[in-house]
Amino acid sequence: MEENFETILTGECGLVKDRHIIVGVSGGPDSLCLMEVLRQAGYPIIVAYFDHQLRPDSGADARMVEKTAARLMLACVIGGADVRDYAEKNKLSVEEAARNLRYRFMFDLARRRNAQAVAVGHTADDQVETVLMHFIRGSGIAGLKGMSYRSIIKTFDPEIPIVRPLLHLWREETVVYCAVHGLRPLYDSTNDSLNFQRNRIRHLLIPTLETYNPKFREALLRMSQSLKSDYAFVMESLEQAWKETVLAVEDDIVTFDLERLSAYSPGFQRNLIRHAMQTLRPNVEVTFNTLERARHLLASAAHLSRVDLKAGLQIFREERLVYICTTDAELPFDLWPQMPGNEPLPLLTPGQVPLAGGWRVVCERWRLPALAVEQAERNEDPFQVWLDAGELPESLELRARRQGDSFEPLGMDGHSQKISDFFVNEKVPQRARDRWPLLCAGDEIVWIPGYRPAHRHRLKDDTRSVVYFSVIRPSDSAPTETIV
Q1: Rounded Cα–Cα distance for residues 131 and 143 (Å)
Q2: Distance from CA of residue 43 to its chain's centroid?
Q3: Dihedral class, residue 182 (left if φ above 0, else alpha if ψ from -120 to 50, else beta)
Q4: How many domains does the chain contain in total?
């Protein structure tokens, strides 16, 4: 048994013997077993007891843990808070409030003592109960795989891990271990209260399920262990899909490419959306119904642009983009070219003009029409255009749209269209329309970058002089080659 523990402590939990470990000790058999296992294995530990103040005798329990630690010559730190009061003020269940306060105390202590990890005494029984809780909530594979020997809970600390070395032991085994090593566990009456969901699962649901399968706990534990391997495979595939579909990740926004995201199967879409939500809100419980609401927005042909999800998050679809964001997030504008202000910007030929967000417009004169035609026919970038320079002045300007603007788009044989209608038809993002740069010669709109040029300035068979325009994205640092 000791050899098995050492393999788990080093291999699964990743612990070393030259840095302290904060060990959460409640005084029950699980946590006392964990404390003694680590002590016997030679790890430097600091005992941490958190008084939830849920029972009148909780103070006495704290003193007993402190005495046990002192007898074993272990450092001990006692903390505590009024959990019920905290739960009421923050509208949480008592269970959730107790966990939040307890973990916050242990991780604060870990940071102060430069500890390598926080260790807790979760057992195989806790694993079974946790998986059942997730199943009842409708969790996916991420919840049904249960807890891991080592994990990061970003809510409490982005670097210090929490380790659970006893996940392979049943609760009965920790009781035996304590008896063999002369440890006397404390009895916590709250473990019998049916007011808590975990206790109802432990005392009511599991015994009922064992009437169908006496080995139910072992079967569920095997299932969670099997799902861990499946989950690892899914996460590897998800990582690749994340790289292909996500355009940007910020503190309050994850931006997806709608076309690429929609190309994945519904299962992958749900997992990508869940991962985005948990990137912004670590450890948020994401249900299947929440993910389906998000997927409905992706697939909807109706004009549905925004759906509330959970925990102050929403999904927002904007033409070719999908945002998972907080409700107060300021959505970015630098994904498109935008005018830096209200005044027009002159553009000489050749020349260049900076736009907002690091974008810029470059203009060059080409004197090889045949080459321009060849390039234009092969071009797939809507932010590049080759135009007949014959009727264009040397000096053009970039400006935002104005009331009453109209445009003669390529392909409409000289028929005009209101800019407002063109933007709607081409699905230009609504937020970006007012400051979208328009290339103009006087009052005439020559080109709408990202979309179409004016019909009469297209390259023709008798074109003798060509002018080339390109809108350069902030990430595109390639130099522009001038062809004369």
Answers
A1: 7
A2: 35
A3: left
A4: 3
Q: Give the CA count within 13 Å in the CB-facing half-sphere of 307.
A: 19
226-252 burial, b for 16+ CB within 10 Å, e for fewer? Answer: ebeeebeebeeebeebbeebbeeeeeb
The domain in which residue 54 lies consists of 2-212
Largest CA distance in the chain: 100
Q: What is the pLDDT of residue 318?
A: 81
**Tell me, what's the pLDDT at 313?**
93
Q: What is the mean pLDDT of residues 42-58?
A: 90
Q: What is the DSSP letter of 189?
A: G
> Euclidean distance between the first and final Cα of the chain, in Å?
80
63 Cβ contact partners less than 8 Å away, ≥ 6 residues apart: none
Question: Residue 481 has what pLDDT?
Answer: 41
Which of 141-145, 234-238, 304-308 has the weakest average pLDDT?
A: 304-308
Nearest to 50 by CA among 75, 78, 87: 78
Q: Which residues, including other chains, have CB under 8 Å from residue 286's CB and lie 6 or more apart?
A: 274, 277, 278, 310
Tell me the C-alpha distance between 403 and 90, whole Å: 50
Give the domain-ending residue among 326, 355, 375: 326
Chain Cα centroid distance, residue 164:
24
Mean pLDDT, the chain, whole residue set? 89
CATH code of the domain containing 354: 3.50.40.10
117 pLDDT exceeds 60?
yes
Distance, in Å, from the CA atom of 317 to the CA atom of 289, rounded to the nearest integer, reads: 18
Q: Is residue 483 part of a domain?
A: no
pLDDT at 480 over 60: no
456-478 pLDDT, tens per residue?
Answer: 999 988 899 999 999 998 876 44
304 and 415 inside one domain = no
Q: CA-to-CA distance for 149 and 168, rounded, in angstroms?
A: 9
Q: Kindly state whether residues 353 and 463 are assigned to the same domain.
A: yes
**DSSP string computed for 68-120:** HHHHTT-EEEEEE--HHHHHHHHT--HHHHHHHHHHHHHHHHHHHTT-SEEE-
Count CA atoms within 13 Å of residue 127 on its CB side: 28
- Residues in contact with 312: Cβ distance below 8 Å, sequence separation at least 6, in sequence order: 281, 326, 327
**Could you tell me which residues are beta bridge partners of residue 361?**
353, 471
Within this chain, do residues 183 and 315 fall inside the same structural domain, yes or no? Answer: no
Segment 92-103, tens digit of pLDDT: 888 889 999 999
> Bridge-partner residues for 21, per DSSP?
45, 117
Residue 217 resides in a domain: no
Sign of the dihedral through C-alpha 332, 337, 340, 344? negative
Given a contact cutoff of 8 angstroms between Cβ atoms, the answer to whether 405 and 329 are in contact is no
Tell me how far CA of residue 133 lies from CA of 96, 130, 168, 198, 285, in angstroms.
13, 5, 19, 7, 11
